Amino acid sequence: MLQEPTSIGEAFRKSFKILMLFHHLVISLLASLRLMGVLGGSVQNPFLLLPPDTHMHQQAVVNIFLDCYQAYKQFAFPHDDLTPVTKSFFDGRNGWGATVVDAMTTLAIMGQEELFIEAVDFSSKIDFNVSHTSDTVSVFETTIRYLAGLLSAYELSGQKFPALIEKAKEVANKMAFAWVPGTSPIPFMNIDFNTSIPILENSVISQAGTLSLEWFTLTKYSGNDTYRKLAEDTVRHIAQLPAPLPGLAAQGLNPSTGKSVGAFVTWGSGSDSYFEYLIKYARLTNTDDNLFADTWATAVDSSLKRLARTSTVGNHLYLADQQDDGTLRHIGSHLECFHAGNWMFGGRLLDNQTIVDTGLELNEACWNTYASTMTGIGPEIFGFFSSDGNFTGATPTAEDLAFYEKHGFFLYPQAEYYYLRPEVLESNFYAWRVTGNRTYLDRAASAINSINKFLKAPVAFAGIWNVNEADSGFIDDTESFWYAEVLKYLYLTFDDPSHINLDEWVFNTECHPFKAPTAKAVYGSGQVIDQSSFGPFKPESGPLPAVSPAVKLPARPT
Ligand SMILES: *[C@@H]1O[C@H](CO)[C@@H](O)[C@H](O)[C@H]1NC(C)=O
Ligand SMILES: *[C@@H]1O[C@H](CO)[C@@H](O)[C@H](O)[C@H]1NC(C)=O
Ligand SMILES: *[C@@H]1O[C@H](CO)[C@@H](O)[C@H](O)[C@H]1NC(C)=O
Ligand SMILES: *[C@@H]1O[C@H](CO)[C@@H](O)[C@H](O)[C@H]1NC(C)=O
Ligand SMILES: *[C@@H]1O[C@H](CO)[C@@H](O)[C@H](O)[C@H]1NC(C)=O
Ligand SMILES: *[C@@H]1O[C@H](CO)[C@@H](O)[C@H](O)[C@H]1NC(C)=O
């Protein structure tokens, strides 16, 4: 009797080995079919096979999530964030309960029905007409977290809770005042909800250009086409502005005039999700207008020609920033690492293997920032040196240079922290679903280990001040994207691949999935856009708003 489990285990392992052998053959066959163009633009590898230890990793993610969510409920509900060191709360998102609304879709996806219903009930009663704090309201943050959380939860529930759509309309109707008639199609970034008057200041493309998926979806369920039109016209306007590099709009925008401000180009903070949404919007809407997919393809093409560099050590691929004066700044960031998954996704939709492979290469460089540190987690910003330039904006110390010689990047001064961001694990999730290569599962498992080992705070889990030190201290704020993004991407990495299949759902930039129609055979015209008709690039000068990833970071204790 005692022998039996062992022999069954043995038999299972043997048959699994045979299955894996067969699986490798199928994957290679699939790769050839894709090269021959037979599989069109399907994003996910249709023959994904999960190994037997998957459930254990998935359960570890659920445990982390529930631990954090219970701590939030105990110490911070109904406020925005848990502060896991002081066991209290922080209202950084107008006090509407950001963690509940942002975590709602993760609860649905994890099958936590009771907590999900509780969250829906809470969300259906939020009063979005007034900010619960003295802050103005960010149109971008409110759209990607609250509006998207409500809409995606509505879809994931099988459209069971119309109150979610009512709330979505309520908050969008207030935000719609960000678009001021008689100015430009660019919305202002922030609004005073007391008066419904926007704050007059410059904006950036990541804030103005990352509303389209959500506002399109709101139109789908409300029947009010104004929402779609507002957000879509903004993207059309940005995409047709004269640009410093083809397809790569300058970061700054003046909503009063509709013109670019400065000439800064980056795939990182302040620009990132504008590029992300170009291709996702084409996919979610299946529009016949090629502007969105073609602008994305043009941005990728320009990036390969002008921004792509490899590090002199380790040959890591990265996309440098181009500054106002045209010089390249050789840095990358955690936020920017969404680009790897986005290029895999878009490369599949365009049926362009070069773009998919480049996405996989970018993913290697991003993962290297995790694999190289003593915690196994990557920093906020990292510097590189290439053979034709090494300006990073920082003066690397002797230790930085020694670290670089070993790992091919260095931790950027003052940005050695990890703030519970998702992008590296997000791209790792895409890499798994697109290729079926089990290395990406191993990496996700290693990240879960690191989280359990180094991020366990007095309550729940927290960010840390230095990813290359075992005890640098915890950051006393658990942002809602920890619940919405990090833990959802990790969970889905170990989930049945037919659940939230990348050919059926499009993720917003906060990891809230929207249901997509059946894909078209191919996206875009196959041509890059000739921008000469947009006129010469003559930006305004002026201050850009602070979009530093760390604006909301609590002060580091000394
Ligand atoms: C918010 O304002 C709208 C429009 O004035 C109103 O219809 C709605 O009932 C208000 N919501 C709440 C929760 O008071
Ligand atoms: C909105 O009004 C409330 C209550 O009068 C006030 O506390 C808050 O500071 C106001 N918000 C802004 C952005 O002025
Ligand atoms: C549609 O939405 C816009 C923007 O919030 C609003 O001004 C308009 O009144 C809405 N139309 C209807 C018919 O509800
Ligand atoms: C794929 O994209 C790359 C980068 O833009 C481009 O150079 C190449 O021509 C494209 N390949 C095809 C087959 O369109
Ligand atoms: C950076 O480039 C300069 C000029 O080519 C060179 O002198 C210097 O050694 C380089 N520094 C590093 C860290 O590669
Ligand atoms: C799987 O991915 C890893 C990391 O990118 C790579 O080294 C390895 O060659 C890949 N394996 C296959 C079979 O493609």
Automatic annotation (TrEMBL):
User: What name does this protein carry?
Assistant: alpha-1,2-Mannosidase
Which segments carry the region annotation Disordered? 535-558
Q: Which InterPro entries match?
A: 6hp_glycosidase-like_sf (IPR012341), Glyco_hydro_47 (IPR001382), Glycosyl_Hydrolase_47 (IPR050749), Seven-hairpin_glycosidases (IPR036026)
**Catalytic activity, per the record?**
N(4)-(alpha-D-Man-(1->2)-alpha-D-Man-(1->2)-alpha-D-Man-(1->3)-[alpha-D-Man-(1->2)-alpha-D-Man-(1->3)-[alpha-D-Man-(1->2)-alpha-D-Man-(1->6)]-alpha-D-Man-(1->6)]-beta-D-Man-(1->4)-beta-D-GlcNAc-(1->4)-beta-D-GlcNAc)-L-asparaginyl-[protein] (N-glucan mannose isomer 9A1,2,3B1,2,3) + 4 H2O = N(4)-(alpha-D-Man-(1->3)-[alpha-D-Man-(1->3)-[alpha-D-Man-(1->6)]-alpha-D-Man-(1->6)]-beta-D-Man-(1->4)-beta-D-GlcNAc-(1->4)-beta-D-GlcNAc)-L-asparaginyl-[protein] (N-glucan mannose isomer 5A1,2) + 4 beta-D-mannose; N(4)-(alpha-D-Man-(1->2)-alpha-D-Man-(1->2)-alpha-D-Man-(1->3)-[alpha-D-Man-(1->3)-[alpha-D-Man-(1->2)-alpha-D-Man-(1->6)]-alpha-D-Man-(1->6)]-beta-D-Man-(1->4)-beta-D-GlcNAc-(1->4)-beta-D-GlcNAc)-L-asparaginyl-[protein] (N-glucan mannose isomer 8A1,2,3B1,3) + 3 H2O = N(4)-(alpha-D-Man-(1->3)-[alpha-D-Man-(1->3)-[alpha-D-Man-(1->6)]-alpha-D-Man-(1->6)]-beta-D-Man-(1->4)-beta-D-GlcNAc-(1->4)-beta-D-GlcNAc)-L-asparaginyl-[protein] (N-glucan mannose isomer 5A1,2) + 3 beta-D-mannose
Q: In which pathway does it act?
A: Protein modification; protein glycosylation
User: Which segments cross the bilayer?
Assistant: 21-43
Which UniProt keywords are given for this protein, alphabetically ordered?
A: Disulfide bond, Glycoprotein, Glycosidase, Hydrolase, Membrane, Signal, Transmembrane, Transmembrane helix
The cofactor named in the record is: Ca(2+)
Origin species, per record, is Somion occarium
Matching Pfam families: Glyco_hydro_47
UniProt keyword Disulfide bond, yes or no: yes
Question: What family is it from?
Answer: Belongs to the glycosyl hydrolase 47 family.
**EC code(s) of this entry:** 3.2.1.-
